[in-house]
Design a protein that fits this description.
- Pathway: Glycan metabolism; L-arabinan degradation.
- Belongs to the glycosyl hydrolase 43 family.
- This is Beta-xylosidase.
- It comes from Metabacillus niabensis.
- With about 300 residues, the protein is mainly beta.
- It has one domain: Glycosyl hydrolase domain, family 43 (Tachylectin-2, Chain A), CATH 2.115.10.
- Strands 1-5-4-3-2 form a five-stranded antiparallel beta sheet, with no helix packed on it. A four-stranded antiparallel beta sheet has the order 6-7-8-9, with no helix packed on it. A four-stranded antiparallel beta sheet has the order 10-11-12-13.
- It is globular.
């Protein structure tokens, strides 16, 4: 068994499987995610603290369209199968993009489903997530990277019913600078002096029907997690941004899930520097569309 403090992982994503009463923890699991990609693993546990694994769920063969930057896998159940949304650096043009893999089982193996990344080929994009609206239309929500556009964007694109391709052009939901809490930074390798990051969008439907989005950026060069909400209840917005991040202790790329005991949890990775990143599980409550952090970095989640 492994404890959370022993698991190096970025971009943690939990799939609570009601069928076997176990949590499946996915994430960026390569020891050096900035270099050659190996694949993705899963950890399996019952209490969010003790884990079996890692078990390999995806390994790329020589014909795969990427061999570098295997990032941020999310696994969603859709029409009886499991779909992994994950980011890869393309071989053909060295641009990052999110593709979709598929498996009959949570433990894989996951195989390529979309024909390469679904995000625009000439864009630097990452961190795609699935959202299915009230009409049953699937969308991918993703980030158009700051490394290309300086002011990072969060975008949405309609997907085909079989999740194999985009069926429309992406639309910009908002830019990072539109929220009050992220701060700008300069980078020695970029000509732009004012840059803002968008990372890890995740869609959450509140009990009162509010459509909310978690996403990450930086506050004075410290990784942080904030929330935005759609004023119309539609993915197309417009989006209103909470003024204060819910987590600003060098952690982000979060998602919300419900435990088998009915508690709401926020998971994210912290700190943000390799190789020290670890999964954090933080108990929260949600009331009238507002999220409150109750405990920080819980060790015994189900008490």
């Amino acid at each position: 068994m492994l404890k959370n403090h022993s698991i190096q992982i970025r971009d943690p994503f939990i799939f609570p499987n009601q069928l076997d009463g176990k949590y499946y923890l996915y994430g960026s699991t390569d020891k050096n995610i900035w270099r050659k990609g190996t694949g993705f693993d899963v950890y399996i546990g019952t209490d969010l603290e003790n884990w079996e694994g890692p078990f390999p769920v995806f390994r790329a063969n020589d014909s795969f369209y990427s061999e570098e930057n295997f990032w941020a896998p999310e696994v969603h159940e859709y029409r009886g199968k499991y779909y992994m949304f994950a980011t890869f650096l393309r071989k053909d043009n060295q641009r990052r993009g999110t593709a979709i893999l598929c498996s009959e089982r949570l433990i894989g193996p996951f195989e390529p489903h979309s024909i390469g990344p679904i995000t625009p080929k000439e864009w630097d994009s990452l961190d795609g997530t699935l959202y299915v609206d009230k009409e049953g239309q699937p969308w991918m929500i993703f980030c158009h990277e700051w490394v290309e556009v300086a002011d990072g964007e969060i975008c949405a694109v309609k997907l085909s019913d079989n999740l194999k391709e985009a069926v429309a052009d992406p639309i910009i939901l908002f830019r990072a600078s539109e929220a009050s809490w992220p701060t700008a930074f300069s980078h020695p390798k970029r000509t732009t002096k004012t840059n803002y990051v968008t990372d890890g969008p995740f869609i959450y439907q509140a009990e009162n029907g509010d459509l909310m989005m978690l996403w990450a950026s930086f506050v004075n060069n410290v990784y942080a997690q904030g929330i935005s909400r759609s004023l119309t209840g539609k993915i197309t917005g417009p989006w209103l941004h909470d003024e204060i991040p819910i987590y600003k202790n060098d952690g982000g790329h979060g998602m919300i899930f419900q435990t088998f005991n009915g508690n709401l949890m926020l998971t994210l990775h912290s700190p943000n520097k390799s190789p020290n990143e670890r999964p954090k599980f933080i108990k929260i409550i949600e009331s009238k569309g507002r999220i409150t952090v109750l405990d920080n970095e819980l060790n015994n989640q189900e008490k």
